[in-house]
Structures are given as C-alpha cells and as structure tokens.
Amino acid sequence: MSKNMSSEKIRIISYIFFGFITTLSNFLVYSLSVTIIELSIEMSTIVAWIVSVFVAYVTNKIWVFKSNSKSLIILFKEVGLFYSARLISGLFELGMITLSVRSGYSFSLIGVEGLGTKLIISIVIVFLNYYFSKYAIFQNDYSLIDNK
Q1: SS in 3 state form for 74-120?
Q2: Taking the model in full, what pTM does it have?
Q3: Domain extents for the chain?
Q4: pLDDT in tens, 11-49
Q5: To 5 degrees, how large is the angle CA 124–CA 119–CA 19?
C-alpha cells in the first residue's frame, strides 16, 4: 500500500470519526432545542447547524485535513469557504427536513419529531461536506502565501 493511499485511509477514518462527533453534537443540540427549549423544528435545525459547523471546522482543520498554515489570509479563506460550503449543505438539509416533515414523509426517532428523517438526510450531507472540504477548502498548498 502506498503512503498516499495509507494517509488517505487515515483521513477518511478521521473524517468519519469526527463527523460522528459533529453529527452527535448536531443531534444533541437539535433534540434539546425541540424537547427542552421547545423551538420549532426549523429553528432547532438552524441552532444545531451553527453549533455543529463550529465543531466541524475545528476538528476538520486540526485533525482531519491537518491544515496548519500560520497565515491569517489562509485562515480567513478556509473559514469563509468552510462556512459557505456548510451553508449550502445546511440549506439543503433545512429544505429537505422541512419539506419531508410538512409533506408527512418524515419519521420520529426516540420520540423526537423528524429525527429519523434528519438521520437519513445527514448521510447525503456527509458526502457533500467531505467533497467540499477535501477539494475546495483545505488544500494545504500555502507556498505562495505563507512565504510572504
């Protein structure tokens, strides 16, 4: 097995592990927002998204894609692209869960309305976000910027 293949497997395993942590934070915040705070499904989805995107950015930057540039320009670029990509996938999630709940095609899980549907939609989101992160955000080619 080549070194590139080995590091790619480690990256994917790390992405899955930290993605699980991120998804757990999203589901926990969503569930607490729906059941304890009694926010609407849409507002709970938005609050959960904000918290989980922060968790995802930190874990992806440090442990998955090992982006360690010291440049503020790169940091702003990564943050901007990361949040933009997550906004796209977040809007997709919000639209899909709203559409499925409102049309009656959603199901509850452990007594939380829409959580089962959210789980299914999250699988698609994971693939979208990995693609965005790997190919558009964390490029790790800072030679032109870091040397200035």
Answers
A1: HHHHHHHHHHHHHHHHHHHHHHHHHHHHHCCCCCCECCECCHHHHHH
A2: 0.72
A3: 3-146
A4: 999 999 998 999 899 999 999 999 999 999 889 988 998
A5: 65
